[in-house]
Amino acid sequence: MKALLLTHLFPSPSHPTRGVFNASVFRAISHHCDARVVVPEPMWDHRQGTSPAAQWTDLGLRIDRVDYLAPPRMPLARPLFMSIGMTPRLRTLRAEFPFDIIMASWAHPDAVAAARLARQFHCPFVVNVLGSDINTLAARSDLRRQITGALRQASRVIAVSGALAKNVVDLGIDPGRVDVQHNGVDGERFCIRDKRELRNRLEIDQAPPSIVYVGRLSPEKGVDILIGAAAELQATRGESFRLYIVGGGPEESELKDEVRRLGLGGIVRFVGSRPHDEIPNWVGAADVLCLPSRSEGCPNVVMEATASGVPVAASKVGGLPEIVDHRNGVLVEPESPTALADGIWQALDREWNREAIRASTPYLSWDAVGQGYVDILQAAVDEVSRPSLLRATPSPASR
Predict the structure, then answer these.
(1) Rounded CA gap, 399 and 395, in Å?
(2) pLDDT tens digits, residue range 142-163?
(3) 43: in domain
(4) Pairing of strands 61-68, 55-58
(5) Quick check: is 208 in a domain?
(6) Which of 5, 101, 201, 343 has a beta carbon 3.0–4.6 Å from 313's, enabling a disulfide?
(7) What is the CATH number of the domain that holds 324?
(8) Which residues 6+ apart lie within 8 Å of 14 measured at CB?
(9) CB–CB of 215/315 below 8 Å?
(10) What is the pLDDT of residues 62-107, one digit of tens each?
(11) Residue 39 falls within a domain, yes or no?
């Protein structure tokens, strides 16, 4: 089987942390089938410093970056322009790599464009949905119709959690065509390590307990709730802890203002976006990994924490109840700084068995995850080819 893997969320030289999850999934898939990656890139991104469209090899994958014209502030038109911009390259690519199936990872605009391309190239396609593309984008009245249309055309829809799969079904998609494939984690990079050594390397305080957040600073991630929880902890526990916020995003300036307003400058540090290779150090240095999200799919950072033997304090949303339980963390009601503060302190106050936390991680290798994806892709290819095989086989009566 030859699989064409398509997403606009993928690392690039100028955006090395964008779409790291997709890079991990695509690499895992490539270990079990012949795969090529196509990354559609708006032309206006080049003015913001991304690399020009080119064919290049990285991450152990063969990657084509393809320019397309994307009118700003016209989200409904973006899938059409994406598919038009990709068509010439895909015609050439199919001559040298006759792909059997397209997998789009992200619902909009990727899956909507992939639906058009699949019709054009007469092949099945599969959609991989990750979280906000269903929880947030599909809730928008202007995008919902396009997204549901693409999901209905797809041979299969792969969701990264059972909760996300339910949300897909709630959009009117046949549950028999929805599969759940939880994330994996690199168990060699994320492992139990010496916290003191990691804190020395990161030049952070040794003595106070460390609470670490890793992720995008955007509304759905609930970092404002975490800052509210830090204020409550400061009021009850004093400055007996440190909070490290690792990541960047549209809310960064606003969140820093809130930290100043609340007088939390002595205990909260904004680390900024860090290279993916540095993330295992921040996760491993934590006493608690905190994820205060308002909505989620199946956040990989939680599995990275448990693989590192680090307990988790997180909101009870999305797929988090499927991977966080009494063995490895504390779940709290979302949108409540008080509940989150209590959950964080419960996690800090408990004696944890780090090996038991690691053992609770569903997948300590991406290899099994890659095989799971390939099994779904192969089934989609087989479903399309089976009727033609039946038609080509003479019935006993005609022999």
Answers:
(1) 7
(2) 999 999 999 999 999 999 999 9
(3) yes
(4) antiparallel
(5) yes
(6) 343
(7) 3.40.50.2000
(8) 49, 50, 51
(9) no
(10) 999 998 988 888 999 999 999 999 999 999 999 999 999 999 999 9
(11) yes
